[in-house]
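Q: I have 490 residues here and want to know how they pack in 3D. Can you give me a structure?
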Amino acid sequence: MKTLRVKVSRFDPQTDTGPTLVEYEVRVHEGARILHVLHAIHDTIDPTLSFRSSCEAGQCGSCAVVADGKPVLACYEEAREGMVIGPLALPVIRDLVVDLVPALNDIPGLVPKQGCQPPSYEEMEAIKPLRSCISCLACLSVCPAVSVIRFAGPTAMRQEMRLALDPRDSVDRVTQAVESGLFTCTSCQACWKVCPKDIRIPGKAIEKLRALAGLKGLTLPRHREVNELIRTTGRSVAPEGPSFLEQVDEVIEPNGEVKGTVGFFVGCMYTMRLPMTPLDAIAVLKRNGIRVIIPKEQICCGSPLIRTGQPDYVRTLQRRNIDAFAFRGIKTVMTMCAGCGSTLKHDYPETIPFRVMDISEVLLEYGIEKPARLNVRATYHDPCHLLRGQGISSGPRELISEVIDLVEMPPVCCGSGGGVRSGVPEEAHALAEKRQEEIKKTGAEWVISSCPFCEFHIAGHTPLPVKNITSVLAEGYREKDRRPHRENQA
């Protein structure tokens, strides 16, 4: 047995103005789950504590709560000293009990055809990745889209795709999904990361539903325009001046000893719209002994087409990009766009003849010269395709903290991904405004990120400078170089 102290959110909407955290100390067995702790509180301290526990008898999912900011199943998650336990981000009935009924009613059921046949083995195999949902609604509670626009939510989309694959169902699930907000998903992947059954809803359901919608002519007009631009120019955005690729040589040698060589996959936004950022990255890489090879024939990675359900041309883009780097014998391809990096790592064939690394991974692997510290307070915005798409969180913070003082904010989508900025601009605007509210709370002077779409989008909704990690490092090095000159003048 051991003693644990936890804090639990208590709230009765009938009598309270808002939730309060109450601390409890309980005796539980080693390895006790959150649900054991809640039972111990209820049985030995406060019988008025309300929570659901029917899932202890099976896989019903009703005991989902938020533990230290993350949705989990109370019967799965081990309790920890000092843990803060609260309800899902859904309407609270009392304490940890939330109202699941409206969302559960949005999950469609099978409408059988007359004389239908059972699914074939192949059809059942296609359905398998989608059928293990236990309706805990953890995914819905973290979905940024549902907070600002009409969207049935991730698990409803999962069910629409599951039924679209079932030959016994009689409903046009694709059109129904579009009407329920299919194109409002930002591809942030928060739903997948909190799913206790590891259902990859963005890739296994939403992107596939969007592809089926495309076959019905339901792709959003702006997404069709991006498709045409990629097919005709190789880029998802039009240039606004000289591109980055026009301003650099194919091979850039470092200052001093060569510690390593990388191929640089630059991405459309940095190449065409924000060339100063990759130029800063080159300066940082050169200073730290890294040779950079930049194939000029590289084109869009294909992410905008994959996310918006237009996969037909993606194989061509993949083949051309793989050939561009493989022809030069490049063994490590570096990205600095979170979306490009996630796409190369997860959507390209597993047989690609090189490893893919984010620039933060490259810099930390080879080590960096210490920059000068700047007297700046900044906050870091986690790009969804870096944090959840690539599992990279600590590396960027380690690099940033070499230069400035970092203050944290919640890692929530800014609204620029999944084709939402172009296809559903009102939603993208609303999510960016919510991001700006969090930025304000930090008291930061700068916003730092590592994704051109996040940087560009957030910059349109905050008066603060929005900088890439490499630009911050570059400023630290420039300040370091200025200081000896100032000391000599003094």
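Q: Anything worth noting?
A: The domain at 104-215 is CATH 1.10.1060.10 (Fumarate Reductase Iron-sulfur Protein; Chain B, domain 2). Residues 415 and 428 are 4 Å apart (CA to CA).
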